Amino acid sequence: QVQLVESGGGLVQPGGSLRLSCAASGIILRINDMGWYRQAPGKQREFVATITSAGSTNYVDSVKGRFTISRDNAKNTEYLQMSSLKPEDTAVYFCNAVVRSIDGIRTYWGQGTQVTVSS
């Protein structure tokens, strides 16, 4: 059984920074793409950023230049460094990963971590 566990959310003032982490555990043969999504109250979950196993990245326009996705393949962990945070970044942030395990290839999701940007 593969699990993704997130950490690093919290309350931050506008203009501040936070770093989210997402660690994958279990019998993992390989992790392909990893990503972050978010869901604000009353809204649908939206894509934030993704990173391939080779390190190529992609971002939603609203976070370009402010957020940076990265990963440590040796630790099966991905990160989301968020800077210049705005109130509209407030949401529950979810990580996901496409994992090859002994059960085959499937996408796993973390439980979500709350990020609140408010003064």
Sheet with the most strands, sense and barrel status: 7 strands, mixed
Mean model confidence by pLDDT:
97
How many β-strand runs? 11
**Low-confidence region ranges:** none
Structural features:
119 residues, mainly beta, seven-stranded mixed beta sheet, 60% strand
How do the helices and strands line up, and which of them pair or pack?
Elements: E1 3-7, E2 10-12, E3 18-25, E4 28-39, E5 46-51, E6 57-59, E7 67-72, E8 77-82, E9 91-101, E10 104-109, E11 113-117
Parallel strand pairs: 2-11
Antiparallel strand pairs: 1-3, 3-8, 4-5, 4-9, 5-6, 7-8, 9-10, 9-11
Description:
- The structure is a single chain.
- By secondary structure, the protein is mainly beta.
- It has strands at 3-7, 10-12, 18-25, 28-39, 46-51, 57-59, 67-72, 77-82, 91-101, 104-109, 113-117.
- Strands 2, 4, 5, 6, 9, 10 and 11 form a seven-stranded mixed β-sheet that branches. A four-stranded antiparallel β-sheet has the order 1-3-8-7, with no helix packed on it.
- A hairpin with a 4-residue loop joins strand 7 (67-72) and strand 8.
- The mean pLDDT is 97.
